[in-house]
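Hey, can you fold this one?
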Amino acid sequence: MNFRCPFLVMLVSILFLSEVYCQSYKGVTGISDTSYSTKNAYNHDVKTHPNIKIVSEFHLETVKEKRNVVYCETGKRKLNLDVFYNADKSYSKQTAVIIIHGGGWRTGSRTQHYPMAQKLASLGYVCFTPEYRLSTEALFPAAIFDVKSAIRWVRKNAVAYNFDPNKIAIVGFSAGGEMAAFMGTTANMPLFEGTSCNLDAKSNVNAVVDIDGTLSFVHPDGREGDDSKSTSAGTYWFGYAKAENPKLWEAASPLSYVSAQTPPTLFINSSVPWMHAGREDYIKVLDKNEIYSEVKEFEEAPHSFCLYEPWFSPTIECINNFLTKVFNK
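Sure. Predicted structure:
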């Protein structure tokens, strides 16, 4: 599928269906959801993987940090990010890496990926960990607008942090992986840019790393949208069940936009097949357009594998090797 061009058809369909069913704001509680955390994920996964170990923050002499930097203000809401960079002045123009956390677009925290940012910074990358508005605060596409704004802020600060503005990679885990792929496939599209911050810069990224993030909300291999036992993360995010507004769910899927403009992409996956729904169809489009991609699957790994050893270190190695290949070829 490739709906990059006929936006009006999709938009009209979404608006029509929106009139049939009222959008639900019941999940916009204004109360933070802390149900997905590294500790909670570990307590669940250690039952089936007793040898796993949480990767804690590193304290590396070469890595400098700036935390809680405001990248956008929307109304009274200040959105923050953190910066991790190598203090070694011998590095020439570096590569920027923006890391998007997971948690079903509703929970989770950017702090979960501080170890990843610190480790990549030690290898010479300039890393950024932005927050974004979750579905307890605002519905889709608010989070998309936020991440696009963060990309634009990062690009505007290339000189300040000594990286090449044409070497910006986005890495995301789970819901963050879906959004990372969405950033890669919807570069500079007015429909998804928002109107708040940093509009004098471009939102395109030059490489994507999707760690166990779905490529499609409507793919038959996926499981997002099952509300039979409780409201699904997707239903909370969109404010519509899948049956109520399937076109919106399709419009939020990276697979709907993958094209000749999509950047090189690395897929790093667990052993949970539905967490990479749409991956093979996505890669077919990349292959057709001669766009480089890689797949790394960790057998028997749980969904939150990148937060633990023994998978954290090889995940970092995969990302480093991929970005080295893409940007230094």
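Residues 239 and 269 are 28 Å apart (CA to CA). Let me know if you want another pass with a different chain boundary.
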